[in-house]
Design goal:
1 helix, mainly beta, 9% helix, Immunoglobulin-like, 150 residues
């Protein structure tokens, strides 16, 4: 019996590891000081600087922005707040933006300032702005909100 107990202790001690603890924490997107805010109006023909601050407990990886039309009043489960909506309409020349960027290595906090020019000839109306951040481990956080283009 002592022999088996000894083997059990040896096996258990052999299973211990100096491996780092697995990261189980999602990165965060701060809405404080963020542009755009929910229900913001972006003017056609102008450049707007999108500002978003990201943070993570270990290390950030990359971020992305997405603007797409919401002329059919679809919804995203992460949408923040509600805004007055224009009547449903078919897109003719909708604005679509997909931008991504890497966050410099070693950062646990990073503020992205991305200039975005809204063409003068795009459809006015309801749009969604989505921002996402991924940490080095692969965890991702996404926030979406309704905005307008006028």
């Amino acid at each position: 019996m002592k022999k088996y107990l000894f083997l059990w202790v040896v096996l258990l001690s052999g299973c211990s590891s100096n491996e780092p603890e697995i990261d189980k924490t999602y990165p965060e997107i701060s809405t404080q000081g963020m542009f755009p805010q929910p229900c913001a109006v972006l003017e056609r023909g102008k450049t707007h600087t999108f500002t978003v601050t990201f943070s993570d407990n270990r290390e950030l990886g990359s971020f992305n922005f997405d603007i797409h039309n919401n002329f059919n009043h679809h919804n995203h489960s992460t949408s923040e707040g509600t805004c007055a909506e224009d009547p449903v309409k078919a897109p003719v020349n909708p604005f679509l933006l997909i931008k991504s960027g890497d966050i410099p290595a070693g950062n646990t906090q990073y503020t992205a300032n991305v200039p975005v020019t809204v063409p003068a000839d795009v459809d006015e109306g309801d749009y969604h702005f989505a921002v996402g951040v991924t940490d080095k481990t692969g965890w991702q956080t996404i926030k979406t909100m309704s905005i307008k283009i006028k």
